[in-house]
Amino acid sequence: MSNSIPTTTDNREIDRTALSGWLMLLVNFALLLGGVALFVQQIALEDRSPALVAGALGLVILAVILFGGHFTLQPNEARVLILFGAYHGTVRKSGFFWANPFYSRSRARIPLGNAEQSGERSKAHGVTLPYRTLSAKISLRARNFNSEKLKVNDKRGNPVEIAAVIVWRVEDTAKAAFDVDDFESYVQIQSESAIRHIASLYAYDRSEDEGEPTLRDSADEVAQGLQNELQVRLAKAGVTVDEARLTHLAYAPEIAQAMLRRQQAEAVIAARTKIVHGAVSMVDMALKELAAKGVVTLDEERKATMVSNLLVVLCGESEVTPVVNTGTLYN
Predict the structure, then answer these.
(1) From its phi and psi, is residue 138 left (phi > 0), alpha (psi between -120 and 50) or beta?
(2) How far is CA 162 from the centre of its chain?
(3) Please, where are the H alpha helices in the chain?
(4) N or C: the chain end with fewer CB closer than 10 Å?
(5) Do the Cβ atoms of 283 and 291 come closer than 8 Å?
(6) Could you give the CA distance from residue 31 to residue 52 in angstroms, rounded to a whole number?
(7) Alpha carbons 182 and 237: distance in angstroms, whole number
(8) How far apart, in whole angstroms, are the C-alpha atoms of residue 62 and residue 42?
(9) Among 60, 54, 58, residue whose Cα is nearest residue 36
(10) Domain boundaries, the chain
(11) Which of the four pLDDT bands, split at 50, 70 and 90, describes residue 117?
């Protein structure tokens, strides 16, 4: 029986505090000036000490190396501390700091998918491959991702065009830096996948006698579902989703005209239904009023004729020209 060995580790952010950059700047200048002064002093002496000369050079070299440990962070910016491949924590506080100068200033080198993009290049098996270096600094600011218009099938299989805007930010820098290659590309790909999945769960528009939510009429519910779907997918990259909203929704061009005619027909039917319902109510009220006040007594045949005439007048799209009967009711 073989044991399965995990190939990845789940990283967690470690909060670290770096030394003040201003204090270490004074120390570094003191070392540099002290080394230079000692070196000049020993060179000026006839009976110079080789050990002191070497010590002076060592101080100068040490000061130059220590100068490399200075870095700055803006508000909502962090830096992951990586020493010889090992993660030592994350500095989140903004300001001027100093840390071990051997901490790496980049967190990864990833290959580019498009060979035409510019970047660092590395030789592998005689083929020139493009690479991009990712900085150890990570922005914690909120960002917008506007997806392209995606052509997908809704719940009923109708092709629709859909796009969304997603507001996201990095929450866990360790996950963002080490659990995925490039968290920005990861957000883009997973967001498009989530949008496609959400679109397949809802119909574009509801049919008659259906109370299910739809993409067009249930914007808030669809947005909440999309946000939940994205949060599950992007948690691996240490990303949190603040908001997700659809920005474009339409039928695909090949069925847009047919669906427009269908919507127009449904609107006409709904309007006609309301007109007929109102007309029937008015005719019923008229007959009851005439009978209650004794204005005229009508048999069933004449009631049917009156109902027909009133319905024509009330339901017709154009004005009706009245015809005045100068004879009796039955002529």
Answers:
(1) beta
(2) 13
(3) 21-44, 50-67, 173-178, 183-201, 219-234, 253-293, 300-315
(4) N
(5) no
(6) 14
(7) 9
(8) 19
(9) 60
(10) 19-105, 142-251, 258-315
(11) very low
- CA dist 285 and 306 (Å) reads 13
Residue 3, pLDDT above cutoff 70: no
Are β-strands 77-83 and 70-73 bridged in parallel, bridged antiparallel, or unpaired? unpaired
- Cα–Cα distance measured from residue 273 to residue 106, given in angstroms and rounded to the nearest whole number: 68
Spatial contact of 239 and 168, defined as CB atoms under 8 Å apart: yes
Of 236, 74, 220, which Cα lies nearest the Cα of 140? Answer: 74
Distances in Å between the Cα of 258 and the Cα atoms of 153, 163, 197, 208, 265 are 16, 22, 25, 17, 11
Q: Ramachandran region of residue 84, left (φ > 0), alpha (ψ -120 to 50) or beta? A: left
DSSP 223-275: HHHHHHHHHHHHGGGTEEEEEEEEEEEEE-HHHHHHHHHHHHHHHHHHHHHHH
End-to-end CA distance of the chain: 104
142-251: in CATH 3.30.479.30? yes
Tell me the pLDDT band of 124, cut-offs 50, 70 and 90.
very low
Length of the chain in residues, anyone? 331
Q: What's residue 259's pLDDT?
A: 61
Average of per-residue pLDDT values in the chain: 80
- Average of per-residue pLDDT across 44-48: 75
CB 98 within 8 A of CB 111: no
pTM of the model: 0.69
3-state secondary structure at position 50:
helix
Average of per-residue pLDDT across 167-176: 92
Q: Give the pair of three-digit tokens for residue 226.
A: 């999309």
| Structural tokens at position 7 | 């190939």
Q: What is the per-residue pLDDT for 167?
A: 94
Please state, in angstroms and rounded to a whole number, the distance separating the CA atoms of residues 282 and 73: 76
